[in-house]
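Quick log. Single chain, no ligands specified.
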Amino acid sequence: MITKDITLPSYEELTVQEVNISTPYLRAGAFHLGKMCENQNNEYMLCRKEENDPRKCINEGKEVTACALNFFRQIKNSCLEEFNQYANCLDKSSKDFEYRHCRNTQAVFDKCVLDNFGIERPDFGYFCRPKVHQTTRPKPEETPIEFPGATEPIPPPPPPGSKAAYGTRFHFIQ
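-> predicted structure:
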């Protein structure tokens, strides 16, 4: 729920140049983009997890977007023809942009990115592995959540072997 105490960021703070690119092109550059912008993306995700408030991570999100824009600009300057062929193959070869039909054009694009940027295509499962991210951002202070008017907690159960407070339900046995 939003109350008058919550401040929302202005449109000027939220406005950045968007990555205006279609699905086949995003899928074609996804692995190299993820590798190139890994640090910015991990910083943003760590901020979102620690802060529990997306408003506090706007600058980190802007850095991720800027990195993606920079990546696609570099691809446009260096590997445009290979990138277009690979994205076109992904677009035309299957209805759900499967990679398996385009391994030849993928290899040509991967070689171009390796030669020009030194970024090798990550192996299968690279982005699924747990990694430790080092950050310079200070860890936020944890504040306990208070619920005014909440009921008292349930008392702990009696230790095993003690007599029941109100007798037993098997009264006929005694």
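Residues 13-123 form one domain.
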